[in-house]
Amino acid sequence: MKSRESLVRLKEFQVKEKRRQLSQLQLMMSEFERMTKELENQITFEEKKSGISDPSHFAYPTFAKAARQRADNLQVSIRELKVQQEAAELSLEEVQAEFAKAAAIEERDSAIRMRA
């Protein structure tokens, strides 16, 4: 019966680990979104300062061009993290179901031992 207790602990650990991973993904996405907004504010400031808002203009500020590229890269990263988040959510659901099943079996076995 110890192996079932170990299985329950293992499944509980896996649930906690999946939740931690999901939390990290969400934290990274929110940080990237914050950084993107900050870059967009800087781009707007540079465009107003120079009076040029067309990125294809020959005199478009270099800083604004670089910041725009970085903001675009962050948006790509956010999209990739969202895909990872969806996969992590599915994985968490699976592990939670496995944990619930293992816990139910352990509870049933425990009740049987108590009656015996």
Structural account:
By secondary structure, this protein is mostly helical. The chain is built from 2 helices and no strands. It has one domain: Helix Hairpins. Helix 1 packs antiparallel against helix 2. The chain is rod-shaped and about 85 Å long. Keywords: Cell projection, Cilium, Coiled coil, Flagellum. This is Flagellar export protein FliJ.
Descriptive tags:
116 residues; mainly alpha; Helix Hairpins; flagellum; 2 helices
Short description:
The chain has 116 residues and is mainly alpha-helical. The protein has helices spanning 2-50, 62-115. Helix content is 89%, strand content 0%.
Topology:
Layout: H1 2-50, H2 62-115
Helix pairs in contact: 1-2
Coiled coil: 15-98
Keywords: Cell projection, Cilium, Coiled coil, Flagellum
Protein name: Flagellar export protein FliJ
What value does the average pLDDT take?
Answer: 93
| Spatial gap, N to C terminus | 14 Å
Which regions contain 5 or more consecutive residues with pLDDT less than 50? none
Under the CATH scheme, which architecture would be assigned?
Orthogonal Bundle
Give the C-alpha Rg.
25 Å
- Give the number of domains: 1
Label the overall shape: rod-shaped
Number of DSSP strand runs: 0
Helical/strand content category: mainly alpha
What's the CATH topology label? Helix Hairpins
In the CATH scheme, the class would be Mainly Alpha
Number of helices in the DSSP assignment: 2
Oligomer: single chain
Fraction in beta strands: under 5%
Protein name: Flagellar export protein FliJ
Coiled coil: 15-98
Keywords: Cell projection, Cilium, Coiled coil, Flagellum
